[in-house]
Amino acid sequence: MSVDIYRIIPKDPYKKVSQDKLNAAKSFIESAIVCDSVDLIITDTPNFYDCASNFEMITCPKCGKEISFDWWGEAMDIAWKDDFNKLDIILPCCGEVASLNDLCYDFKCGFACCSINIRDPEKLIDEDVILIESVQKILDCETSMIIAHI
Ligand SMILES: [Zn+2]
């Protein structure tokens, strides 16, 4: 059986959000929507949150060319060895510098030091502006939403 997990993460990969704020956001989401569960993940260094089987393609944010998964996998291995503290890389297509966080992942993926995981919400929430704005206000930062199909 497959599940959809909607992950709300700060846009800034290094942003630290306090446990209190994350708890407040979790309580808010639980009161605002119907879903199987809401879980929190907090890490000291950025974690890569992917979209699982929704992951189809990566393209360059500078020149728009497709980036191979082989090249990306190696770049991720190197960055992972340094706990993702350095995300800047030289792009293989155009030689420009970009953060691994800013590559164009399709569907969206991203790095973050925390994630609010909403499992199987009853309705689609990725365009629920009121919900997203309220969570951003509670967390006091801008957020991205990663939709993982597992
Ligand atoms: Zn490029």
Keywords:
150 residues; alpha+beta; 3 helices; globular
Number of beta-strand segments: 8
N- and C-termini, Cα separation = 9 Å
Average pLDDT, rounded to a whole number, is: 97
Structural class of the helix and strand makeup? Answer: alpha+beta
Summary of the model, kept short:
The chain has 150 residues and is of the alpha+beta class.
List strands and helices in order, with pairings.
Layout: E1 4-10, H1 19-32, E2 37-49, E3 57-59, H2 69-81, E4 88-90, E5 97-99, E6 104-106, E7 110-119, H3 129-139, E8 143-149
Antiparallel strand pairs: 1-7, 1-8, 2-7, 3-6, 4-5
Residues 60, 62-63, 65, 91, 93-94, 96 line the site of zinc ion.
Q: Can you walk through the features of this model?
A:
The protein is of the alpha+beta class. The chain has one domain. 25% of the residues lie in helices and 33% in strands. It has 3 helices and 8 strands. A 4-stranded antiparallel sheet has the order 2-7-1-8. A two-stranded antiparallel ribbon has the order 3-6. Strands 4-5 form a two-stranded antiparallel sheet. Helix 1 runs antiparallel to helix 3. The structure holds zinc ion (ZN). Zinc ion binds next to loops.
